[in-house]
Amino acid sequence: MHQPGCSATPFRLRNEWWWIGLLFALSLLVRLMYVIPTGFDGLYGQDAYAYYDFAQVLRESISAGTPLQPFFWPLGYPALLAAGFSLFGTAPSIGQSINVLLGSALTALVYVLARQCNLSRSSATVSAVVMMVCGQAVQSSIVVMSDIPALFWATLSAVILLMYVADETVP
Q1: Contacts of 79 (CB under 8 A, 6+ apart)
Q2: What share of the chain is helix, strand, coil (3-state, %, to 5)?
Q3: Which of 133, 120, 117, 145 is nearest to 23 (CA)?
Q4: What is the pLDDT of residue 166?
C-alpha cells in the first residue's frame, strides 16, 4: 500500500527528465509572456533598486579590492546579482533574467520534491503547475528581488536533503 509522506524509497529522477524539462520550459514561457511584450526591466519599488545598486557596489568593491559598504539586508542575493553582472553585464535585465530562470526552475523543483514525497506523477504535476501560474510566484520571478531566489535555494535544499536520505550507500 502507498504510504503518504516522504520516504527513503528513491525517486527515479532519470526516468522523468523530459517531463521536468517540459515543466521548466512551460514555466519559463509563462514568465516571459509578462516580460517580453511589456519591456519591463525588473526594477519596481525601492527594494529592487536597492538590491540592484548594491550588487553593482559589491562587484566594483570586489574588483577594486576596497572594503565593502554596509548594506541593510543579507548579502546573498546581491552577491548572486554581482556574479551575474560580472559574467553578463550590469543591465537590470540581467538581474531579472536570473530571477526568471530561478522561478522557472522552482516549478521543476516542486515537481521533483512532490515525487520524492511519493506523490503520483499527476499530483506532482498539479503541484508544479500551481507554482508555475501562482500570481505571487510569477510576479516575484520578474522583479529584481530576493523572494524567488530564496525560495529556490530552500526548495533545492529540501530536494537534495531527500536525495541524501534516500541514498542507501550513506552510512
Answers
A1: 55, 58
A2: 70, 0, 30
A3: 133
A4: 81
